[in-house]
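Researcher: Structure prediction, please.
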Amino acid sequence: MGRARAVKPELEDKLLRKHPRIFRQHDLPMNQTCMCWGMDCMDGWFNIIDLLCANIQHHLDWHNGEGEFDYNRERNEKNPDHIPIAQVEATQVKEKFGGLRFYLQGGDDYIEGMVQMAEALSERTCEHCGNPGVSRSTGWIRTLCDRCHEHWDEIRAGKWDLAKGKDQ
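Model: Predicted structure follows.
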């Protein structure tokens, strides 16, 4: 059994543009990062990844006094106990055993909790369409809704048009 294609290029580009600091490693060579291969999951998890990245960056900016929270910088500089949080950089984003795996460098325990929540949510979200789903074996463990599971062979072959709900 083969694997279905990854996130559509236009969706991946949207994530790269919206979260450039998190996806900084995207253009690095393969001997430095796994992000060079892009996001190895399907479109249904786009919103989970997008919201995860937005919340991670918001937490970093607030804690470190950057971006819209630069007013925190002076407070942080006066606090000798303040330790900045290293900028998170995604090193790999993929599907594994029917769930999202978001590997990163940097961050803190709070960010690790956000990643765990996103990964848990993906295990209940159809990887193809984003509707509620369950873990299923298609020769490869996938989280799919009933409709996408029913049409998995066509999806995998690139012959299922989700928008029209029929074969192409």
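Model: The first helix runs from residue 9 to 18.
Researcher: Thanks, that helps.
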